[in-house]
Design brief:
Helices cover 77% and strands 0% of the residues. With 128 residues, it is mainly α. The chain has one domain: Globin-like. The longest helix has 19 residues. It is globular. It starts with a helix and ends in an 8-residue tail after the last helix. About 9% of the residues have low confidence.
Length: 128
């Protein structure tokens, strides 16, 4: 996971903590919205991904103001974009973030896994 975080920070200029949080949100989104088999392959190839997803999900279900905001954001790629902005990812860095994460995924599990993930989530291809 450190390699992915380093690549994202180098590409986007985000600090490591923000990059890590953003990656957790993206992986949680993929786990929820993407095809289970292919997303499972991706997560298995990214040691530490389950912990990042757990952290992202904990923030979602935490109640209070953040829980209310998360619930109002809706779903899909637009909801993911709102979550990323709320953790400090500027709109202009979302595409480079997605591109780097998916390039890393392709290196780890190949296009046979990443293609179906991207193809199954409406609007995701804009960010990869």
């Amino acid at each position: 996971m450190e390699e992915l975080i380093a690549r994202v920070t180098a590409r986007t200029g985000l600090d490591a903590a923000t990059a890590q949080t953003a990656i957790g949100h993206i992986l949680a989104f993929l786990q929820k919205e993407g095809p289970a088999a292919e997303v499972g392959q991706l997560l298995a190839a990214l040691p530490g991904s389950e912990a990042l997803i757990a952290e992202a999900n904990a923030g979602e279900n935490g109640g209070g103001l953040m829980g209310m905001l998360g619930g109002m954001m809706g779903g899909g790629v637009m909801g993911l974009g709102q979550k990323l902005m709320s953790v400090g990812v500027p709109m202009g860095q979302m595409q480079p973030l997605g591109q780097e994460l998916f390039a890393f995924g392709r290196e780890k599990v190949g296009e046979d896994a990443m293609g179906p993930i991207i193809g199954s989530i409406p609007g995701l291809n804009q960010f990869v």
